[in-house]
Amino acid sequence: MTLAQPATFARTPASAAGRIVKAECILVSVPFQADVKLVWGFTGGGKNTFDTLLVRLETDTGLVGWGEAFSRAEDVALRSLVETRIFPLIMGEDAAAISKIKFKLEFGLQNFGRVGPTMYAISAVDIALWDIAAKAASQPLVNLLGGPFAREVEVYASLLRYESEDGIARAVREAIGRGYRHIKLHDITYPLIAAACEAAAGEATVMLDVNCPWSVAEALAMDARIAHLGLTWLEEPIWPPDDYRGLARVRAQGNHRIAAGENAGSLHDFVAMADAGAIDIAQPDVAKTGGVTELLKIAAFCAASAIEFVPHCALFGPGQIATVHINAAQRTVPLLERLYCDFEAEIYGGATLPVGGRVEVPHAAGLGIEPDMAVVDRYRIA
Ligand SMILES: [Mg+2]
């Protein structure tokens, strides 16, 4: 659905970014190939697919900005939320007033959740507004974030979940062959984790993300069992993800550096994690945690708190590109996450694919890369 409004906002002159006069939400779901289990509700119609929920904003000066909300399993409910709750609140606003718009949305929708779909939708708008701001300035986004510390960002292959030791070892070897020197696992059983580490030995560092399966006691037992594998970090070991006291116990009594934050909603969740002593590595997601604006605040907080800032990025659209710009603007440039799978078609025609385990920071204005609308139209969910 497209929400359009005539450009009749004559109250005060808008900035060069212009006033928002058109907003569209496009849900795309693209099949991918990977020798993996159907897990995490990623499936659509019995196939492995990943969603990209695009938000396209247009201003009366003709600028177009693209944003992305975290989405899985053909999330038409989230698309409806964006169209019915978010778009009516932003029409006619000066697109340059990014923080004001974000506050208006967060304050106006506070009863609908500070973590989850409402915040995903707000994140998408924020990313699109930063794209517009950078285009209005004729600068790549990274230049509005303080400028780049790097022209390229190193990427880690974030493997999915595999059926067998052979399968995961094959995937690790393949990723190394493609140039990756950092690999993250999502398996939760010892034999598969050990097989992956053996396959990577000496050629890639290995991180482990288990997506919140254990109690504190179970996590500590597994922590001890895998301690000899030399993992770079242990990510989200316990359920629920917002049990920061429990996470702090695993961190204090276990052997691993603890990473978490993809299930957080705002800066304040990271302050609470830090106050609890729960994390070594903060992982906000630009399409879940309030967009570029919120990630900049979280990055500053991490810098002042001796916490590493390594954004989560299980995204393939504008959120992924925004994360590249954010990472490039950090003094210690974080690794960029890329889920390890091969799509039937690429939304950006392959321009965002890592080469030799690295991606270039786009240098055109805004996010710097525009979606291939033929691919978007082919895979959009009606
Ligand atoms: Mg994770």
UniProtKB/TrEMBL annotation:
Entry cofactors = Mg(2+)
Q: Record keywords: Metal-binding included?
A: yes
Alphabetically ordered keywords of this record: Magnesium, Metal-binding
User: What Pfam families does this protein's entry cite?
Assistant: MR_MLE_C, MR_MLE_N
Coiled coil ranges? none
Q: Which CDD domains match?
A: MR_like
InterPro entries from the UniProt entry? Enolase-like_C_sf (IPR036849), Enolase-like_N (IPR029017), Enolase_C-like (IPR029065), Mandel_Rmase/mucon_lact_enz_CS (IPR018110), Mandelate_racemase_C (IPR013342), Mandelate_racemase_N_dom (IPR013341), RHMD-like (IPR046945)
One GO biological process from the UniProt record?
amino acid catabolic process
GO molecular-function terms, A-Z: hydro-lyase activity; magnesium ion binding
Q: Domain Mandelate racemase/muconate lactonizing enzyme C-terminal spans what residues?
A: 165-257
Is-annotated flag, keyword Cell membrane?
no
Q: What is this protein called?
A: Mandelate racemase/muconate lactonizing enzyme family protein
